Amino acid sequence: MKKIIFRGLIVVIALSIGGKILMDKREKDNEELRTIQTDLADYLYNHYEIYTKDKDKINEADKKYNGGTGTITDDEYLESLKNARQYFNIEKIEFTGFSVGPMKGLVVGFIINDVYPDETTLDTRSAETNKWLYSFNTGNTRNSYVLTKKNSLTDEKMPEENIIYYDKGVK
Question: Please, which domain of life does this record's source organism belong to (predicted)?
Fold first, then answer.
């Protein structure tokens, strides 16, 4: 009888230690994912903006240009199309998930300002800083918005209340 109790006690102790190790590993992984989200949000906040095009201004420019036979020149037409852009700073980022990509990179999904969904794959770290190197497909239109690099970069932290973290781990 004492052997059964002793074996049961050993099993309980082993499971407790294993559970503690597993919980510590999961907590460390979640902490790393939160750091990735904060760094990515700060990077987007400081280096990128989104824009959309004012359809009324574009239609007006198209009418004036009229396929090259209108009242404005090619350069004026291109300038009016450029002026039809409405730029918005990145004010809010909501992270929507993590997954492992086909090349074993970490795919991070996010939505900018509730209008621009995108994702990036983290698979390379900087040798100098040991931080992830981010790359985005600028110029893609999603929900009538386009992600583009800012003309003047900043070095600020994105307000913490404007970052919505994804805490469910990697799928």
Answer: Bacteria
